[in-house]
Write a structure and sequence with these properties.
Layout lengths: L1 H26 L16 H4 L1 E8 L6 H17 L6 E5 L3 E7 L4 H8 L5 E5 L4 E6 L6 E5 L3 H6 L3 E4 L3 E11 L2 E10 L1 H13 L5 E5 L2 E4 L11 E8 L1 H14 L5 E9 L5 H50 L6 H14 L1 H15 L4 H33 L3 H33 L23 H26 L7 H4 L1 E7 L8 H12 L4 E5 L4 E6 L4 H15 L7 E5 L5 H26 L2 H25 L5 H30 L7 H33 L2 H23 L1 H8 L10
Antiparallel strand pairs: 1-3, 1-13, 2-3, 4-7, 4-10, 5-6, 8-9, 9-12, 10-11, 14-16, 14-17, 15-16
Helix pairs in contact: 1-8, 1-12, 8-9, 8-12, 8-20, 9-12, 9-19, 9-20, 10-11, 10-20, 11-12, 11-17, 11-19, 12-19, 13-18, 15-16, 17-18, 18-19, 18-21, 18-22, 19-20, 19-21, 20-21
Length: 742
């Protein structure tokens, strides 16, 4: 009886916690609705935001200067937490910045900072202190000479091109927080700064931004290593503002604001509704599958999954992560992947029951034996997420944040929450074997024997991708169907007469009808206007679209602005992404090598990962699926999914090696391990497939472009984990035979 009371108590507590988390996720806490889904920061595609256009002050800037400025502005936005912002070139001298979630154009401009020039000048004989701002307490300075005189005297020490970075920092001194700004100079500025600070110890150096003195720190000692620390009676906010000012002033080009507008969502309410419908259908299918296949453990997993989804929503809100439509698709996908750990655990429980263990002992052993596979798989992916966040930018950094959050929450709910609920159910009286099921003896099958067939299938699929790329290059001049994010295109800004503004859907249809092209639309509500972005249009196409809009909506042709725009994914961002993935792959290889004590495991995992990525790339090439920001997210998702599936098989091989009988060959061990993990790989693929299939069926076109290659990746991940990874290990262990059991 005591056990039953204890069990019902656990179940009651789990239900109360689940209800509380769901309540917070739906309604939030306090007047600001902290933790609610309603308060999640949405991207420009879901909720709109502010679009700012900057123009270079310099006449005829070079392409290199514009690209460098764009990239540094992108990094500036990443540092300020605006990882989902889009930055792209317009024409030859303009840069557009689209910031999601913002509702006040002026406030956003102020927060981002004015794009003026910055100089470091000698303070002595050039400036004087004239007072203090009565409200902020900031010191105020005046110039003693004209700017031309200061230049002529050679008193300018540094300009923006000499500055590498500036970051606000703090330290404690006698229990008091001191706020400072750490300054890092480029090689071009290091020598100049060393010479000036050596000659002018005890004198002020004025930091001049946009013609105003923003700070005048005194040189305490010669600074010769290209690093300096600006100290003073700064508040935390003042230190952050000074660091931001220096970074913005260090842009290669001085920029001026040309216009700033609040824009509507790129996708209408229909896109959000269909995505949420897909999520609901996918989750229901996962719930049903887990409950039917795993019975009582499946119901426990379903309740844990409810808690997982609620925690995900709350954390997205509290951590202020900006959620775009691809990000929403990634969250929906993570729900399908979150049950992976439960599938591994429950399969282990059923195996133990199948060999005659009691239910309680089987539950204990199931969690214990599944732990290494869950831990290694998730830690490997978490390492990748951390590296991607540190080295990536834009979409890559945002994806890494969501990925890391999903990993941490899924491990917690699987290893702690599901265990708590399952023991509660057992103690409450649901302790019969029939409620848990058991694994029937697996059929003997020689996977290794058919290795050559699997290799031929893989080579054929990868070769199809190569042929698709070559055909694409010969046909359209591009190996892949690069979209606006990568290639750029044409942007048309159109102002409509009062009361005649069409919806996003109408404008998309207008572009399709007139020039047979797809378009990305932003409504500018404050000006009854819209921007229409398409692939690069010919002069004839531009005229055709303009005339169509004039005839059907009565727009003033003279007010139509047409510019060529660059892709939002710059060359530097591509290099960042490639570097991040390369470093993440090396880190994963080292971790697997360390954990499995055999280089063959690590090398096999990386080769299998490359195999899956190449096949998904083949899907993009053959299907001519648009390659945009979602392409990066898709590929990174496949990397995480592939390594997880591989680790499960390798964990079982490692376990079977330790228990190997003398008569068992390594081929026997591989066949046995693949057979034991076969159902796990199939079931995990099914639950994830449910979520992605719902996106393909109910999602809008941009989501389908993300979800369809993912479906291919899921199938490929299951195929490689069953047919490729074990065989790779078998071949490579001949070269690296340092197995720990030998």
């Amino acid at each position: 009886m005591n056990h039953k009371v204890k069990g019902f108590g656990k179940l009651f507590l789990a239900l109360v916690v689940a209800a509380a988390i769901v309540f917070v996720a739906l309604c939030g806490v306090g007047t600001n609705k902290k933790g609610s889904a309603e308060g999640i920061r949405l991207g420009l595609d879901l909720a709109g935001g502010v679009s700012i256009t900057y123009e270079a002050v310099k006449e005829n800037p070079t392409e290199e200067e514009m690209e460098d400025t764009k990239y540094k502005l992108r990094k500036r936005l990443d540092d300020s937490g605006q990882m989902e912002a889009d930055v792209y070139l317009e024409g030859g001298n303009r840069i557009n910045v689209d910031i999601p979630g913002a509702t006040d154009a002026e406030a956003t401009l102020k927060e981002l900072g004015r794009m003026g020039e910055i100089f470091f000048i000698l303070g002595t004989n050039n400036i004087e202190l004239v007072g203090q701002d009565p409200e902020t307490g900031a010191l105020q300075y005046a110039f003693l000479k004209s700017w031309d005189e200061i230049k002529a005297a050679g008193d300018i020490i540094l300009d923006g091109t000499d500055i590498q970075d500036a970051d606000p920092m703090w330290y404690e001194e006698y229990g008091i927080q001191k706020n400072v700004v750490d300054l890092v100079l480029k090689p071009s500025g290091t020598e100049k700064f060393a010479k000036a600070t050596t000659a002018h110890v005890g004198e002020p150096i004025a930091i001049v931004y946009d013609g105003e003195v923003v700070s005048a720190p005194v040189v305490q000692q010669p600074l010769t290593d290209g690093k300096a620390q600006i100290s003073g009676s700064f508040t935390t906010e003042e230190a952050m503002n000074l660091a931001t000012t220096i970074r913005v002033g260090a842009l290669p080009l001085e920029l001026k604001e040309l216009r700033a507008n609040v824009v509507g969502a790129k996708l209408g309410a229909e896109a959000i509704n269909t995505s949420l419908l897909a999520a609901a259908i996918g989750v229901i299918l996962v719930f049903l599958f887990m409950a039917i296949r795993y019975r009582i453990p499946g119901v426990a997993a379903d309740l844990a999954l409810v808690i997982y989804i609620g925690l995900m929503v709350v954390c997205l809100n509290l951590l202020e992560i900006t959620l775009t439509l691809p990000g929403l698709a990634g969250i929906i996908l993570s729900i399908g992947m979150a049950v992976d750990a439960n599938v591994i655990i429950f399969s282990r429980i059923q195996e133990e029951i199948g060999v005659g263990k009691t239910v309680r002992t089987s539950i204990k052993l199931g969690f214990s034996k599944a732990f290494s596979a869950i831990f290694d798989g998730n830690i490997t992916t978490l390492i990748a997420a951390i590296v991607l966040y540190m080295l990536g930018s834009g979409t890559v950094k945002s994806f890494a944040t969501t990925l890391a959050l999903g990993i941490v929450l899924s491990m917690f709910t699987a290893l702690a929450v599901t265990r708590f609920i399952l023991y509660g159910m057992y103690d409450a009286g649901l302790d019969k074997e029939k409620h848990y099921g058991q694994v029937t003896k697996y059929k003997e099958f020689s996977f290794v024997k058919h290795g050559k067939k699997y290799a031929m299938i893989s080579c054929a699929l990868i070769l199809a991708g190569v042929i698709g790329m070559v055909a694409g290059k010969l046909g359209s001049g591009e190996v892949l169907a690069y979209g606006l994010d990568f290639k750029g295109g044409t942007s048309m800004t159109v102002t409509f007469p009062e009361g005649t503004e069409p919806s996003i859907g109408e404008l998309e249809q207008a572009v399709q009808t007139s020039i047979k092209e797809t378009a990305v639309i932003n409504l500018i509500g404050s000006e009854n206007a819209a921007t229409v972005k398409t692939k690069e249009l010919s002069e004839e196409q531009r005229n055709t679209l303009t005339h169509y809009l004039v005839e059907n909506y009565g727009i003033d042709e003279a007010k139509v602005e047409i510019q060529s725009i660059s892709g939002t994914v710059s060359g530097e961002m591509k290099r960042d992404a490639i570097l991040a993935v390369a470093v993440a792959t090396v880190c994963m290889l080292l971790y697997i090598w360390f954990r499995f004590s055999n280089l063959a495991f690590a090398a096999s995992a990386v080769i299998a990962l490359l195999h899956d990525v190449l096949i998904v790339l083949a899907v993009y090439a053959v299907g001519r699926i648009s390659v945009g920001n979602t392409f990066i997210a898709c590929m990174l998702t496949i990397v995480g999914y592939s390594i997880n599936a591989t680790i499960v098989v390798f964990d079982r091989i490692r376990e079977n090696l330790k228990e190997r009988l003398k008569k068992e060959s390594y081929i026997d061990v591989v066949n046995k391990s693949i057979a034991q993990t076969f159902t796990r790989n199939i079931y995990t693929s099914l639950t994830t497939f449910f979520m992605v299939a719902a996106l393909v069926i109910f999602g809008v076109s941009s989501i389908r472009e993300f979800a369809f290659p993912l479906m291919a990746g899921i199938v490929c991940g299951a195929y490689s984990s069953i047919c490729i990874t074990g065989l790779l290990w078998l071949k490579l262990r001949e070269k690296f035979p340092e197995d720990e059991e030998e």
